Structure formats: structure tokens, C-alpha cells
């Protein structure tokens, strides 16, 4: 479904910057996330997520069209399923179990045990198995952590010499941001170096091609020494 490159991707993650983003996340009923990190406003839209991760922005975002019983039948590969059955990952065939691991670790990551899939997890697995295109879901049914525990906004009280100083968390986050900029510049320099190498190789190939053409012409029209 166009998600293979995303599954195989590996990038450096900066947890402190991620924590700041979620701590300052604005409440919204839309699928657009607005926040800021170290004074920089950030707006994340579905199109931006699709472009950044290299995945298609198409397919279903909710699983209302598939029932739990239907999802269980597809996941367990059984036509008749007990609706009261408490399904764990050990009940699933190997193919469904592998897809479930991808769902709970990559697509819809969650804390805690991964052996007890939620209804949404099972429906996600079922859609993958029956070939239904899936988009990133825009809502999360699970209980979210209270963002106040990570709140980094300055207090509204009277300022003092101690409160005006940047916190250690803020300094570490700035270091992470600087490191991310360095990694980005390294990537740009590597692309530039590869581009230069390709240009030089192309020039060398062109010169070799010219030499080959000249040699072919000399072989086809040999120049004999003048008798005079």
C-alpha cells in the first residue's frame, strides 16, 4: 500500500523536542496539529505527514465500515468466531501476528502490553489482509497522557532572576535542535558531494566516449604517409 519505505526508514529521534511539541499542543477538533517548540510555530497537516513519511494520503481513516466480528474472522482466518472470545496475539496466525506487531509498534504505537490487541488494532490488521487502503487515522480512542505533566510554558507570575533563566530541559532541547540542524546539513553536504562525484564521473565518461569516437574514425579512415 505504499508504506514499505516508511517501515524500513530509520531516523534520529529527539525525545525532548517531541515532548515539547506535545506539551504545547493546542486543542483542536480538526486533523491539523498546531504547536510550537522553542518559540518556533509548527503546524502538522495530513498532507505534510504523508509527504514527510513518503506514504500516500489516501484510503480510509476510520474503521466504521468493518465490524468487529468481520475483523476477527479475517485476522483469525476462521469463518465462525465466538464473539465473546478474548483474542490475544497468540491466537493469531503468523501472518496476522506480524502485521499486528507492525500496527502496535509502528503505525499506531502504544504503551503497555502488545499481546492484547484493541478492536481498532484488529480492524487495522483485517484491512491490511483484505487489501483495503488505509490512511493515517485522525483520532485516537485511547486515553492520552495529561500534557500538563510535560508543560514547559513560562509561568505568568512575577519574574525573578531565577525564573528568567532557561531551564535545563530547555537547554537540552536547544542542543537537540542544534544537533538536528547539524545532521540536516550533513545530509545536504553528502548529497552535494554525491552530485559533484556524479558530475565528475559524467565528464570522465564523456571524455572517454569522445576518445572512443576519435579512435573509431582513425581506424575507419587511416591516414597514409604522403609519398612526397
UniProtKB/TrEMBL annotation:
Low complexity bias: start-end ranges: 151-168
| InterPro entries in alphabetical order | Transposase_32_dom (IPR046796)
Show the ranges annotated as biased composition (Acidic residues): 138-148
Query: What's one Pfam family here?
Result: Transposase_32
Q: Using the UniProt annotation, give all residue ranges assigned to the region (Disordered).
A: 135-168
Q: Which residues form the Putative plant transposon protein domain?
A: 1-137
Protein name according to UniProt: Putative plant transposon protein domain-containing protein
Q: Which organism is it from?
A: Cephalotus follicularis
Amino acid at each position: 500500500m505504499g508504506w514499505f519505505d516508511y517501515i524500513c526508514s530509520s531516523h534520529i529521534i529527539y525525545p525532548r523536542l517531541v515532548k515539547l511539541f506535545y506539551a504545547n499542543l493546542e486543542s483542536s477538533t480538526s486533523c491539523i496539529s498546531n504547536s510550537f517548540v522553542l518559540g518556533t510555530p509548527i503546524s502538522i497537516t495530513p498532507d505534510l505527514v504523508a509527504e514527510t513519511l513518503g506514504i500516500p494520503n489516501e484510503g480510509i481513516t476510520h474503521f466504521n465500515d468493518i465490524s468487529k466480528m468481520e475483523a476477527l474472522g479475517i485476522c483469525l482466518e476462521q469463518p465462525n468466531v465466538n464473539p465473546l472470545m478474548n483474542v490475544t496475539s497468540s491466537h493469531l496466525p503468523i501472518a496476522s501476528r506480524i502485521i499486528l506487531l507492525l500496527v502496535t509498534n509502528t503505525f499506531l504505537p502504544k504503551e503497555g502490553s502488545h499481546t492484547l490487541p484493541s478492536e481498532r488494532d484488529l480492524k487495522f490488521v483485517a484491512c491490511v489482509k483484505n487489501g483495503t487502503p488505509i490512511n493515517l487515522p485522525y483520532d485516537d480512542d485511547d486515553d492520552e497522557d495529561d500534557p500538563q505533566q510535560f508543560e514547559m510554558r513560562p509561568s505568568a507570575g512575577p519574574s525573578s532572576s531565577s525564573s528568567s533563566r532557561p531551564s535545563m530541559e530547555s537547554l537540552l532541547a536547544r542542543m537537540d535542535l542544534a544537533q538536528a540542524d547539524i545532521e540536516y546539513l550533513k545530509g545536504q553536504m553528502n548529497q552535494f558531494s554525491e552530485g559533484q562525484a556524479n558530475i565528475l564521473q559524467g565528464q570522465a565518461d564523456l571524455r572517454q566516449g569522445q576518445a572512443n569516437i576519435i579512435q573509431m574514425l582513425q581506424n575507419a579512415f587511416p591516414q597514409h604517409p604522403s609519398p612526397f
